[in-house]
Amino acid sequence: MPDAPGFETRPMSDRTRWTMLLALTGAFALSQAYRTVAAIMGPPLQRDFGLSPQELGAFAAIFHFAFGALQLAMGIGVDMHGVRRTVLAAFPLTIAGAVLSAMAPSFGWLMLGQALIGVGSAPAFLVCTVFIARQFPAERFAAVSGTVLAIGGVGMLLTGTPLAWLIESWSWRAGFVVLAAMSVLAWLAILRWVREPGAEDHGGVARQSFGDALRGFARLFTMPHTWGILALGAVTYAAFVSLRGLWLGPMLVDRHGFSLVAAGNVAVALTLLALAGPPLFGRFDPGAARRRRILAFTLVLVGFFALMAAGAGPVVDVAASLVLSLLSGFIVLQYSDVRSSYPPETVGRALSLFTMAMFLGVALMQWLTGVVASAAAAAGWPVYGAVFAAIAAMLALGAAAFAFLPQPAGRH
Fold first, then answer.
1. Which residues of 152-165 are buried (b: 16+ CB within 10 A; e: fewer)?
2. How does pLDDT run across 74-118, given as a tens digit for each residue?
3. 260 HSE (CA, 13 A, CB side)
4. Relative orientation angle of helices 38-49 and 161-169, to the nearest 10 degrees
5. Which residues, at least 6 apart from 272, have a Cβ–Cβ distance to it below 8 Å?
6. 223-252 b/e with 16+ CB inside 10 Å = b?
7. Which of 306, 312, 325, 193 lies closest to 266, judged by CA?
8. Using an 8 Å Cβ cutoff, are 90 and 119 in contact?
9. Is pLDDT above 60 for 38?
10. 164 within 8 A of 39, measured Cβ to Cβ
């Protein structure tokens, strides 16, 4: 496949590349904030709307369902119309969804707002990874992706102590108002700084039809190694986001009696470690031949979630959460594995498909853990023990699929 329209084929200076990438990363940072609000907003939302654990799980999951389901469409949009046009067209829905959420008179309206936020944020991370794959040398992919993940993770800092303080001082609605205002600024930054010279004439490349782009995605499913990659991708990031973005706050408040601000402080500590992880793992990328040893990190995650399921006390739960946040940085190596597992002409679509699996996995895990939590509560079992045991089991299944399904040619 020739270079996708909207990506400049002429050499750009490193400064220009980074300016464009940082502007795109602003929208990604806001998407990180939106996907983790449930961890701090969960208790006040449960109080104001009388939500069950299952409904809280659905609230956290609907963003990711919308976000993940739109990845294929956004990938086609990038192929046909370029990065700048795709993001500028989609991200206003994020702003509208945040405003609607802030004004929501009922849980149903709140869910609609979250769905709009997910749709509008759908291209936020995809455009960053595709831009890196197109504009930076292959040997820098892991390092640059790790840096972007770290910068984008700043959005999660907003949903720690700052959001907890804002909610306790005003309300959870004020949190959505602030995020909506920041989203406007992110959209304006992309409008101002992201330029795609040659996008109007597509760099001399014929515009792809929708059918051609869709067939390109379909071909990925005919490659046997795709399935193992998607299976692991659907659970690793999902496990981290389910902890940081949904169950951390309720666990600390309900299981251990923390205040909301104290839970927010723990969330900030987790986020800081999560920011350090991707550049750390990206810097020490072992290369394609040994990168599939990421399976070992997944098994370590299984062990720590099993430890949290045992309910050994607040110190163990907080310490395990901190270690899990740092180890989650190995996910950047999964993107590098995708980058090296497909021919160059299919890399953009493969990254799009992997991102779709990753965020649909987040939605599925958050919804399923909400169901598990409600069932455990009804049966009189420890709710958080059941939730973390379910996450450990899903991680183990993803790891087994990655290990035993076909691997890319030449990999063992």
1. bbbbbbbbbbbbbe
2. 888 887 788 899 999 999 999 999 999 999 999 999 999 999 999
3. 20
4. 30
5. 157
6. bebbebbbbbbbbbbbbbbbbbbbbbbbbb
7. 325
8. yes
9. yes
10. no
Q: Which amino acid is at 348?
A: G
d(CA 261, CA 128): 33
- Structure-block tokens of residue 197: 């010279």
Distance of CA 146 to the CA centre of its chain: 13
- In 3D, which of 345, 100, 407, 12 has the Cα closest to residue 205? 345
Please state at what angle helix 331-341 crosses helix 260-283, rounded to 10 degrees.
Answer: 40
407, exposed or middle or buried, with CB in 10 Å at 0-12, 13-18, 19+? middle
Assign 3-class secondary structure to 93-138.
HHHHHHHHHHHCCCHHHHHHHHHHHHHHHCHHHHHHHHHHHHHCCH
In three-state secondary structure terms, 200 is coil
- Among 206, 162, 142, which Cα is nearest to 4's? 206
What's the CA gap between 18 and 391, in Å, rounded?
36
DSSP letter, residue 380: T
What's the token pair of residue 151?
């910068």
Contacts for 133 with CB less than 8 Å, ≥ 6 apart: 141, 339, 347, 348, 351
> In the numeric block, which tokens belong to residue 148?
């972007």
Q: Residue 337 is inside which H or E element, if any?
A: helix 331-341
**pLDDT tens figures, 174-192:** 999 999 999 999 999 999 9
Rg of the chain's alpha carbons, rounded to an integer? 20
Structure tokens at 156: 């999660």
Tell me if residue 6 falls in helix, strand or coil: coil
